[in-house]
Write a structure and sequence with these properties.
The structure is a homodimer of 430-residue chains. By secondary structure, chain A is of the alpha/beta class. Chain A is built from 17 helices and 14 strands. In chain A, the strands form 3 sheets. Chain A has a 6-stranded parallel beta sheet, with helices on both faces. Strand 13 of chain A pairs parallel with strand 14 of chain B, so a sheet runs across the interface. Chains A, B: It catalyses: L-histidinol + 2 NAD(+) + H2O = L-histidine + 2 NADH + 3 H(+).
Chain lengths: 430, 430
Amino acid sequence: MLRIITDQGEARQELQRISERTYHENIETQSATVREIIATVKKNGDRALLEYTEKFDGQVIPPEKLKVSGSEIDAAYQQISPDLLQAIKLAATKIEAFHQQRTPKSWVQFAEDNVVLGRRYTPVDRAGLYVPGGRASYPSTVLMNAIPAKVAQVPRIVMVTPPSEGGKINPAVLVAASEAGVTEIYRVGGAQAVAALAYGTETIPRVDVITGPGNIYVTLAKKEVYGRVGIDSLAGPSEVLIIADSQANPVHVAVDLLAQAEHDPMAAAILVTDSELLAQQVQAEVDQQLENHPRRTLTEKAIAHYGVIILTKNLTEAAELSNLFAPEHLELEVESPWDLLEHIRHAGAIFLGNSSPEAVGDYLAGPNHTLPTSGAARYASALGVETFMKYSSIIEYSPSALQKVSKAIIDLTIAEGLPSHGNSVKYRTK
Amino acid sequence: MLRIITDQGEARQELQRISERTYHENIETQSATVREIIATVKKNGDRALLEYTEKFDGQVIPPEKLKVSGSEIDAAYQQISPDLLQAIKLAATKIEAFHQQRTPKSWVQFAEDNVVLGRRYTPVDRAGLYVPGGRASYPSTVLMNAIPAKVAQVPRIVMVTPPSEGGKINPAVLVAASEAGVTEIYRVGGAQAVAALAYGTETIPRVDVITGPGNIYVTLAKKEVYGRVGIDSLAGPSEVLIIADSQANPVHVAVDLLAQAEHDPMAAAILVTDSELLAQQVQAEVDQQLENHPRRTLTEKAIAHYGVIILTKNLTEAAELSNLFAPEHLELEVESPWDLLEHIRHAGAIFLGNSSPEAVGDYLAGPNHTLPTSGAARYASALGVETFMKYSSIIEYSPSALQKVSKAIIDLTIAEGLPSHGNSVKYRTK
């Protein structure tokens, strides 16, 4: 049963505990394992990938099967239902349409004395996309990661995903990859797949950016190779914080909390409300909806450990608690969500009103569902087209413009003790 | 003496060696030290900071002196020359003017069925700025890191920098901080300062983003705390790649190479040219300019280890080598720099023509001088206003819009085995 907290000090402590739930005790050991895996892949290439796949995934993959063939992708289209194919296509269309908007564009500014300044945006050469296997093998993950890379016009979009029984890959994932513009798919997962993307092997090309969620080993591997390649973020378990008032429907609030909890035993589901009645109704409703839940054990675990209802005096106080937590997903199921929005400073995605359940954003509203977790919304944003682009600053000075600033530059170079910096201007001016 | 390489295979190998020069042998030991320092600061707060400052910087700082006082900043204004003050002010004005352009703006899109989608940009609450001490204590670093945070309207801009002899801080750095809008300054450096910014101590507030260059311990500490806070990048030693043709002035090319080399014995200075004559002239000119160079030993070391001239058949080939290296700074000292620009895919900042030495961008042209190093320009950009901002995705659906997509969402939730996701839509629609 969801606890109801009324004490604000206790509420803050509880939010901090939940926010930090990703920090494991044995992270050092896991990091050491990951470093060893990366070093081995660097040294042994494909052979290491196949050995780790046998060891960790229990699958023996012949070297020539590492890359998923075109005929396997064609076959996947036959293995999913026409309804699912249509849903994937609809989602892909809506996600692409949203991501096409306000993409970074190069610009220059012509200033006085023939000075030109600006930014020149270009895509990365190669993007690497990690897609988990097993319980979290989701076609929506593929769409949300690959489509921004496609919109960014990345020439090679490389996907890796671990094989399941018989070396198979979820056909819905293969179809989503094909629809989203993935250019090549490899049958490998875990830290070894991240290592392959960062350093390249005989078969898998080295990429420039690695995105996508994964288990703790995948996340630690991404942190380890960060700097060698770019990464989207260090994704932790998912979370929702719902701010609701007395007009909210307790059945809807409860199902939204459970939609988060059913992801993962470490998922967090938090309700903050100024209505004691709603708090009690949601508490009861969550229990009821859990009764016959197909993923009851896992979902109940998340609710028990990382679920909570916080009762506040008013909605402004609720917004402040939310800012403290900086949730991945924030739902505003209140009478005037746009007014309350003014009080929100940090959240990955904000769902306004009673008809905007998180699921609409998870699948097809358009904005990306890959969002900052564990308080990272304090400083980070959703994955986007920007993740796969970067810019070069552009600077063109003229002889007369350089002349005008030469004294100031030389004074600064003297202060910093960098004589050739000064001379590079002095030699070009009088 | 700068070597001249003509073999393209050798050139590629050499560029790779130079690009990877940051990867040390003893990085594991240094990482362990850094993790210990961070854990100690987390546990002991200010006391740990003062102990490490005594141990690593040899300075005993009384607790009440950790924060730099207003009167110390006032005094700094008296300690620098009026010319330097004017140069700092000019640079600050020009950097701020450039960064004010095209800053991220919130937007919403009104789609059919009363759907609202968009992005809402907000600044981080607190920015942390690391400024090195000793040889690399530069006022320009302060301006380039703090001004974007100020333009982003970050309420608290916290600077840390290690004390030198007598607990002093370079007055030009204090003046630059004051001019750039830094709100508080603390006398502490190294990994311990990064730990303080990431976790907070009694005196130093926890921040949301940490930016700024530093030695290997600072860089490793930034990598370690990344995820808990945002960081700008993992800065390596500085580098320039110059593409020049026969019309370039060898004196200018040589001084620009040395301006890079004089930063650091690990700095890299690379010339790629299609002119054998220019290659020879630059080779001779570098030697001559080194003769009486005030930082000769250090600069010569950089030139010897990480300096090279590569001779190519034509400029397109030169551009391809540059793309492979993805330099932090790229100078195009060629007849038609804007034409050559079309062949460039990866570079932190690009300086076009013969009157645009890197120094103009280092100090005051306007674009940021904090740039991706060691090949990171393949996927990353300059530090900017964006570094201190993030957005929340905005999603508002109406009952009728939700109705229209409900079947597609439910089909996807079935494929992904997430029943409450499906129910969150089902319960809200017919």
